[in-house]
Amino acid sequence: MSTRTPARVTATSWPVLTGAARDVLMELLVHGPMSRSEIAPRLRLSRPTLSRVTKTLVTAGLVGEGGTELRSPTGRPSELLHVRGESHHFLGVKLTADRLYAAVTDLAAGVVASVEAPLRSTAPADVVEQVAEVAAGFEGLTGLGVTLGGVVREGVVTDAEFLGWVDVPLAPPLTAVTGLPVAVDNDVQALTAAEHWFGAGAGVDSMVVITVGAGVGTGLVVDGRLVRGAHGLPPRFAHVLVDPSGPACGYGHRGCASSFLMTEAILRQFDGPLTYGEAVERARSGERRAREVFEAAGYALGVLIGHAANFLDPHKVLLTGDGLPLYEVAREVVYEGIEDTYEDDPALIDLDVQPFDFGEWARSAAALAIRKTITGAV
Question: Which domain does 96 fall in, by range?
Fold first, then answer.
């Protein structure tokens, strides 16, 4: 392990806010510029209270005033409040088995810089050092968010199989070397929250996020809140049964959705070494075996989507991940799986397929830091 000490980060402090001020700021972040007359009834704040709160936010540089707009068919144009994104910057880091993806965003989660690099080592101390070096390359950061595939409880990575980590405290050492407040979470949970605040699900009350690729992840938003289990575990739909005679997943579950959808599970069904991209190209070219493998995976994806929609009846189902090409190759079969599983009209399911980019995972890690900072959780 290296004995270098990363340069300490030049940080920008976050102001102390009341609960009402946090609520107003979050409302503007999620729903965009709004007038005071719109905000007050939404948050059930009196006009005097809202005036005090907005003055605090403006003085702190978090919110700006400017521009007028006719917001209703009757009445006068209203002055709009908007978030001053440039006031604070946050670093988000997504860890994979062998790479680090980082993005710096403003307060509104707009990306202003990005970095990616191979991990020098997966040893926890070396990863902390490398993340700290990335953070030291940017001035004026307010917070740091780190996400990874695995189980995370209160800043401790209790299980991250792909990194070989068990019970690794990650937030405390990162704070010690960077001086920044640090939030750590499961990557799919962070992505779900980011999409709910800043992305395709902004403002909806219920949403399911499904990611396919090296793993199969799910995230839920219910009544406008990210769902967390009683034991700190993210929602897990990946092991719903598709075919009892199907292959076994890594947990030994036979014929579950995960056993069909994971990249490794797909590649195991081909003879000889093959990359996922090469397998996809074989399916696109019409090769029989490749078509069979991807159509089985597509049907399993449809079953997973159908079960998730049955369970929650969400406003939106968002699909993404590095395994997304299987949806493109087997789209018709995906919808067969939905139709065979969903109990109502499949047209009710608003399926939003989002292009995959590891940079978006890094952005969601920065959004995690934003969310935790505003809510006072870090």
Answer: 88-193+359-375
Residue pair 367/144 in contact by the 8 Å Cβ criterion: no
Which CATH number do you get for residue 143? 3.30.420.40
8 A C-beta contact, residue 282 and residue 311: no
Per-run averaged pLDDT (10 residues), the chain, 378 residues:
61 92 93 91 93 95 80 66 96 96 96 96 97 95 95 91 94 94 95 92 92 92 89 84 88 90 92 92 95 96 96 95 93 96 94 90 96 85
Q: Return phi, psi of residue 87, to 5°.
A: -70, -30
pLDDT of amino acid 9? 75
The residue written with tokens 């070396």 in the block is 126
Do 93 and 156 lie in one domain? The reply is yes
Q: Which helix (H) or strand (E) holds 343?
A: none
Q: What are phi and psi of 218, to 5 degrees?
A: -140, 145
Q: Please tell me the distance from the alpha carbon of residue 255 to that of residue 257, in angstroms, as a whole number.
A: 7
Please report which residue ranges of the chain form alpha helices under DSSP H. 19-31, 36-43, 47-59, 124-136, 171-178, 187-198, 257-261, 263-267, 276-284, 288-312, 325-329, 331-341, 358-375
| Residue 300, burial from CB neighbour count under 10 angstroms (0-12, 13-18, 19+) | buried
- Is 171 in the same domain as 283? no
Determine the pLDDT at residue 272.
82
Residues, the chain: 378
Predicted pLDDT of residue 277: 94
Pairing type for strands 216-222 and 207-212 reads antiparallel
Give the Å distances, CA to CA, from 264 to 96, 132, 247, 295, 364.
15, 32, 12, 16, 25
